Amino acid sequence: MIGKISIGKGFAGCLSYCLNNKDKTKDLPPRAEILHFNQCYGNVHQLIRQFTEVRQLNKRVEKPVWHTSLSFTESDILSKQDKIDIASRFAEKFGFADNQYLVVQHNDTPGHPHFHIIVNRIGFDNKAVSDSNNFRRMAEFCREIEIDFNLTCVKSPEKFLPPQERNKMRKDDRKDYIKTIVSQTILECNSLPQFTQKLNELGYHVEVGRGIAFIDDKKVRVKGSEIGFSLDSIKNQLVKNLQMQFTITKDRNRSINLNL
Fold this sequence. Notes:
Helices cover 40% and strands 17% of the residues. The chain is α+β, with helices and mostly antiparallel strands.
């Protein structure tokens, strides 16, 4: 099991991404399947409002959004209740069992089963959940869950491996994760400012110069060209999105005029 944590500023971007079902196909299950609500309920708009209202209880915290993804191998067999139980144990271990949080499974990545946990770090008692030592704590949690649920064992993050293990080749899952985020986000935008804003809300800083790079909450920098998204390719896709939106609007207006 692989776990990732990002800390961000805005609930709208994170919740909208995790709950986005626009790519669903009739013959397939919805992309986003809600597994569990905790101290919250409703659709994406209701959830954004609820999380934001509680966030106002402690305005000193600049980044109230906690976003976790837990990924498994194809061979790992987990029921819906198993996933809810794992999320509940995660909430207990990281100290937000009484906070607002939502568990969402994504079904659009065959071969990469995973679910997301979106948490309000601000509790009803005004206190904020600590985000210190997350890298180490996540590694410990993953190893515990692998044992308890008989899951495929994945190596711990490199800095916590024994010295003799640190030089062994390990897959760079961080790049795969940001590639997934970028590929989803770019489809929702019509301009570069809108694209960078949405990524900022998801906890990523975007550097734009002669090229483009993405920096996560651990200050790890990934060039767009390393994940198949050069600045030129991103700009081209955004132009296509804008042209498509213009065509859809034009066709809709034409249809309205014909019906008058």
